[in-house]
C-alpha cells in the first residue's frame, strides 16, 4: 500500500470519520437523555425499591427486553418507516441516529440499572433516616453513588454504538462502515478497508481510555 | 421521649423464606435524656425494633410516639419532617463514598432543607464538635472506622435531633475506638440532652453508657429496667450478662462471697469496713464494677475462709448494710448459712 493511495483516500476517510462521530455523538446524547432515567426507574421500581411500583417495573423491563433481543440489523430495517417519519425524507446521518438510539437506550438502561442496584442499601436507609424523600434519595444518593459505574456503562454503550454505526452504513447512513463496505469490500480497495479499521480501533481506544479515566476520577470507594 | 406500645411486625412468607414474626408485642419507654440499651441474641428483633422507631420499617400494628408525636399516624410528608428529630447511626456507617466528609454532613443539611448559605458553617461546626474538622475535605474511604463513625454522628446531629438511634454503631470497631465512640455518645447525651436508644451485642457497651436496658428474645421483651435495678435481680439473664464474674470455684475450706452494689451509699468503703469489723482476711476473686451516676454499681466476689465467714456473722452484717449477698461454699464444707438463700445451693457445683 503506498502513500499516494492513502492521501487520495484521506478526504473520504475524514468525512466518514466525521459522520461516524456525529452519528454516535447524537445517538449517545439521546441515549443518555432517555436511557439514564429509564435505567434509574427500572432499578428503583422493583421489589423493595425506593420508587416501588411493580407493574411499571414489569412493563419497562418487558419493553427493554424486546429492544435488547432485537438484532440491530433487523431493528434498523424495521424502524425505517418510523425513522422516515421522524427525520423526513432520506436516511443519512440523522436517520441513523434513530435506530442507533433505539438499540443503545435499552442496553444503556440495563447497565444503569446494574450500577444503581450496586449502591448499598444502607445509604438509602441513611438518607431516609435524615428525612429524605424518594426523589431526593434518587438524585442525591443513588445517582452520584452509581455515577462511576454509569460512566463505565456509558463507555461500553458508546463502543457498541460505534460498531452499530458501521452497520448503519449499509442502509445509507454514511460513515466509516459505509466506506469500508463500499470501497473496501465491493471495490476491494485495501487501503480503505485497512484505514477505516485503524481509525475505528483508535476511536474505541480513546473512548475507553477517557471513560475509564473518568470513572476512576469519580470513584472514591 | 420514646414510647413504643405493643409493636408487632411480621414479614409475610415469600417464595424464598417462611413468614417471620420479628416483633411480637414490644412495649418500651425511654425517658428524655436517658441512654437505653437493647440487647439480645442475633435475630431477636433488635434492628427491626429501632427501625420501627423512625418508621424506616412500618410496624404491622402498635404505636410509636416520639417526642409526643404519634409517628404511626403521620402521613409521609409529616413523617419525613419528624424523622429529622431522630438521628440514626449505623454499624457500617453508611456514608456516601462520592462525597467528602463535609459533603456527607451537608447531605443531611440539604435533606433537612437548611438554606444553602448556612451549609458550610454548620457542617464545619458539626465536624468540629466530633473532632474531625481538619478532615473535612477527605473522602470517607480515607478515614479509619472510628473517624467514619464520627462523621456518621455529625451527620445524624445535623438537624438538631432530640433522639439518637444507634444500631450496633460500635460493632465494627476495635475496643479502644469503641470506647472513644461511646464516650462521644455519652457526651452528646450529657451536653445536648440527647435521648439515645442503642442496640448492641456487647454487654460491656450497656455497662459503660446505658442508664436502662431491655433484653429481647424472639421478638419479645424478656427483661427491662434501670441498670442498677436490673442488677439487684439475682440470677436474671441481664444481671449475669452485665456483671459477669466468670465461673466460681471455691478452693477447699474457702467460701466465696458475692456482693452486689446497686448504687446508694452502702458500697462506701465496704471492703475495708468488712475487714476491720470482723478481722477477716479477704482476697478479691473477681469484680465487675462500673461507675453509674457517680456511684459504684456492680458485683465483687471475695474469697475467705469458710469457717471464719460462717462463724462471724459477716453475711448478716452485709445484708444489714442493704447489700445483696450470696455465699458459695465448696461441697465438702457445707454452709451453715444454707437456709439463708437458695443461691448457696450453687456452691455444690464449685
Ligand atoms: N426484611 C425482612 N424480611 C424478612 N424477614 C426479616 C426482614 N428483616 C428482618 N427479618 C427477620 O426478622 C427477625 C429479626 O431480625 P432483626 O434484624 O431485627 O434481628 P436482630 O436482633 O437485629 O439481629 P442481629 O443481632 O443479628 O442484628 C429475623 O428472624 C430476621 O430474619
Ligand atoms: Mg441487627
Brief overview, please?
Chain A is an all-alpha fold and about 220 residues long. Chain A has 9 helices and no strands. In chain A, helix 1 (about 5-45) runs antiparallel to helix 7 (about 135-170) and helix 1 (about 5-45) runs parallel beside helix 9 (about 190-220).
Which labels suit this protein?
heterodimer; A: 221 residues; mainly alpha; MetI-like fold; 9 helices; B: 350 residues; alpha/beta; Rossmann fold; Alpha-Beta Plaits; 2 domains; 6-stranded mixed sheet; 4-stranded antiparallel sheet; 12 helices; 14 strands; 32% helix; binds adenosine-5'-triphosphate; binds magnesium ion
What does this structure look like?
The complex is a heterodimer of chains A (221) and B (350). Helices cover 83% and strands 0% of the residues of chain A. In chain A, helix 1 (3-44) packs parallel to helix 9 (190-218). The termini of chain A are far apart. Chain A is mainly alpha-helical and 221 residues long. The radius of gyration of chain A is 20 Å and the shape is elongated. Chain A is built from nine helices and no strands. Chain A has a single domain, classed as MetI-like fold. Chain B is α/β, with parallel strands linked by helices. Chain B folds into two domains: 2-230, Rossmann fold (3-Layer(aba) Sandwich), CATH 3.40.50.300; 247-328, Alpha-Beta Plaits, CATH 3.30.70.260. Chain B contains twelve helices and 14 strands. Chain B has a six-stranded mixed beta sheet with strand order 6-7-8-3-9-10, sandwiched between helices. Chain B has a four-stranded antiparallel beta sheet with strand order 2-1-4-5, with helices on one face. In chain B, a hairpin with a 2-residue loop joins strand 9 and strand 10 (220-226). Chain B starts with a strand and ends in a 22-residue tail after the last strand. The chains are: A mainly alpha (221), B alpha/beta (350). The interface between A and B is medium-sized, with 22 and 32 residues. Adenosine-5'-triphosphate binds at residues 11, 20, 22, 40, 42-48, 201 of chain B.
Amino acid at each position: 500500500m503506498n502513500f499516494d493511495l492513502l492521501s487520495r483516500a484521506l478526504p473520504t476517510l475524514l468525512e466518514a470519520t466525521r459522520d461516524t462521530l456525529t452519528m454516535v455523538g447524537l445517538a449517545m446524547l439521546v441515549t443518555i437523555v432517555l436511557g439514564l432515567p429509564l435505567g434509574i426507574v427500572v432499578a428503583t421500581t422493583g421489589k423493595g425499591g425506593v420508587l416501588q411500583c411493580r407493574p411499571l417495573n414489569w412493563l419497562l423491563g418487558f419493553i427493554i427486553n424486546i429492544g435488547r433481543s432485537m438484532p440491530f440489523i433487523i431493528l434498523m430495517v424495521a424502524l425505517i418507516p418510523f425513522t422516515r417519519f421522524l427525520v423526513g425524507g432520506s436516511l443519512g446521518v440523522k436517520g441513523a441516529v434513530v435506530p442507533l438510539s433505539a438499540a443503545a437506550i435499552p442496553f444503556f438502561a440495563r447497565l444503569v440499572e446494574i450500577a444503581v442496584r450496586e449502591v448499598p442499601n444502607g445509604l438509602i436507609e441513611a438518607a431516609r433516616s435524615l428525612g429524605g424523600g424518594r426523589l431526593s434519595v434518587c438524585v442525591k444518593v443513588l445517582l452520584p453513588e452509581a455515577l462511576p459505574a454509569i460512566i463505565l456503562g456509558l463507555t461500553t454503550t458508546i463502543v457498541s454504538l460505534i460498531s452499530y454505526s458501521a452497520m448503519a452504513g449499509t442502509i445509507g447512513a454514511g460513515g466509516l462502515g459505509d466506506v469500508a463496505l463500499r470501497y473496501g469490500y465491493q471495490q476491494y480497495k485495501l487501503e480503505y478497508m485497512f484505514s477505516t479499521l485503524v481509525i475505528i480501533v483508535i476511536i474505541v481506544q480513546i473512548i475507553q481510555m477517557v471513560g475509564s479515566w473518568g470513572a476512576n476520577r469519580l470513584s472514591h470507594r | 421521649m420514646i414510647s413504643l406500645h405493643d409493636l408487632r411486625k411480621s414479614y409475610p412468607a415469600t417464595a424464598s423464606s417462611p413468614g417471620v414474626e420479628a416483633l411480637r408485642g414490644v412495649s418500651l419507654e425511654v425517658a428524655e435524656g436517658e441512654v437505653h440499651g437493647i440487647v439480645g441474641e442475633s435475630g431477636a428483633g433488635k434492628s427491626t425494633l429501632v427501625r420501627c422507631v423512625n418508621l424506616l420499617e412500618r410496624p404491622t400494628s402498635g404505636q410509636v410516639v416520639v417526642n409526643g408525636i404519634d409517628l404511626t399516624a403521620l402521613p409521609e410528608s409529616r413523617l419525613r419532617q419528624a424523622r429529622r428529630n431522630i438521628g440514626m447511626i449505623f454499624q457500617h456507617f453508611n456514608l456516601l463514598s462520592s462525597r467528602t466528609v463535609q459533603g456527607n454532613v451537608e447531605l443531611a443539611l440539604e435533606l433537612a432543607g437548611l438554606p444553602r448559605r448556612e451549609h458550610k458553617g454548620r457542617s464545619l461546626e458539626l465536624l468540629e464538635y466530633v473532632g474531625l474538622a481538619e478532615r473535612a475535605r477527605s473522602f470517607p474511604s480515607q478515614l479509619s472506622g472510628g473517624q467514619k463513625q464520627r462523621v456518621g454522628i455529625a451527620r445524624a446531629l445535623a438537624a438538631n435531633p432530640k433522639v439518637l438511634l444507634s444500631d450496633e454503631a460500635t460493632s465494627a470497631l476495635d475496643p479502644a475506638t469503641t470506647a472513644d465512640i461511646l464516650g462521644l455518645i455519652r457526651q452528646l447525651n450529657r451536653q445536648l440532652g440527647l435521648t439515645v436508644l442503642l442496640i448492641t451485642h456487647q454487654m460491656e457497651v450497656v455497662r459503660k453508657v446505658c442508664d436502662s436496658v431491655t433484653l429481647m428474645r424472639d421478638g419479645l421483651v424478656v427483661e427491662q429496667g434501670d441498670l442498677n435495678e436490673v442488677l439487684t435481680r439475682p440470677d436474671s439473664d441481664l444481671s449475669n450478662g452485665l456483671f459477669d464474674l466468670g465461673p466460681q470455684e471455691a478452693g477447699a475450706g474457702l467460701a466465696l462471697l458475692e456482693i452486689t452494689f446497686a448504687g446508694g451509699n452502702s458500697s462506701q468503703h465496704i471492703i475495708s469496713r468488712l475487714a476491720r469489723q470482723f478481722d477477716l482476711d479477704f482476697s478479691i476473686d473477681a469484680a465487675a464494677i462500673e461507675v453509674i451516676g457517680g456511684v459504684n454499681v456492680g458485683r465483687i466476689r471475695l474469697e475467705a475462709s469458710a469457717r471464719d465467714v460462717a462463724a462471724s456473722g459477716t453475711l448478716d452484717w452485709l445484708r444489714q448494710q442493704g447489700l445483696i449477698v450470696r455465699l458459695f461454699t465448696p461441697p465438702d464444707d457445707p454452709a451453715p448459712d444454707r437456709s439463708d438463700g437458695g443461691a448457696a445451693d450453687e456452691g455444690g457445683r464449685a
